[in-house]
Amino acid sequence: xxxxxxxxxTYRLNMSGxxxxxxxxxxxxxxxxxxxxxxxxxxxxxxxxxxxxRTRRTINGGSALVVTMAAYSVYIGGDAWESMMLNRFHxxxxxxxxxxxxxxxxxxxxxxxxxxxxxxxxxxxxxxxxGLTVNPFGWSAAGIVPLVMVVSxxxxxxxxxxxxxxxxxxxxxxxxxLVTSAGLLPFAREVRSGNVLGTHTNLYVTETIETLDDLxxxxxxxxxxxxxxxxxxxxxxxxxxxxxxxxxxxxxxxHGSFYPGHNKWNxxxxxxxxxxxxxxxxxxxxxxxxxxxxxxxxxxxxxxxDIGPFPPDGVWFMKSSxxxxxxxxxxxxxxxxxxxxxP
Length: 343
Description:
Blueprint (H helix, E strand, L loop, with lengths): L8 H7 L4 H11 L4 H13 L5 H24 L11 H4 L2 H12 L4 H20 L11 H24 L6 H11 L2 H10 L5 H17 L6 E3 L4 H4 L5 E3 L6 H4 L16 H7 L4 E2 L11 H7 L2 E5 L10 E4 L11 E2 L12
Parallel strand pairs: 1-2, 1-3
Antiparallel strand pairs: 3-5, 4-5, 4-6
């Protein structure tokens, strides 16, 4: 109702202008990490086929939702962040997957338990070996080898204990243990980077937008690539440069290859025509090599400040704006030779 259309604006942003074949191709690759979950859910459906009618309804209903979301994710081309994690569509059904696997494998006989133990080992190992549990958009052999070794060692130990003491480690616990171990190396890399799931980046953007908030009046309009964090931490009106909240951009033709939610923008409209006081972030994927020259032609300059955390390459301010606290700004060192006069 808000957008005056029967689907959300972000659906149109992701889908319009993106060929079905290109979406499906990327969606299949991006869903590779979810393969172990689907296999284990299928195993749970099979092993729970002789359970009570009520339990089977729970298993079948939950598994149907898991499969439906997996198919939808492929159809729309996946998400933008598979290099770090399962995409956000898969995340919505992971609790159901846990329920289905626990219900389907936790009450079977010894043969079923052993089948679950074997599958919980083999499925993640096969997924890791195919590069599906790391990053399908750029994994290296050097990263795969230690991960396969870790999963294999945990798997061997799990099989040994599970076969010797089948009632001590039931199927669901083994599934959780093995699938978790398959993600240990990517998680360790995230921890080592100091930016687990983007938390450091999130903090950096939060601190810089708070600094920017002190550099402009409350009425100053700010254009931003991130439609979330910057808007949450300032009371200023915001312009969304990537179309999450802009119907015109959402309906426009995409730039470059398909990249969900990140291949539509129109700086001539969002900046050249809308004339925000500040352009906090820009995003081009290398497809706008002359953007900085265009920004200057629209009357913007690249400025820095020392009053708080701020991007080292500066932020773009409209030189004619009366809602900017110019006394707190200086031209960024790399841009002083480009200055055409004081604002």
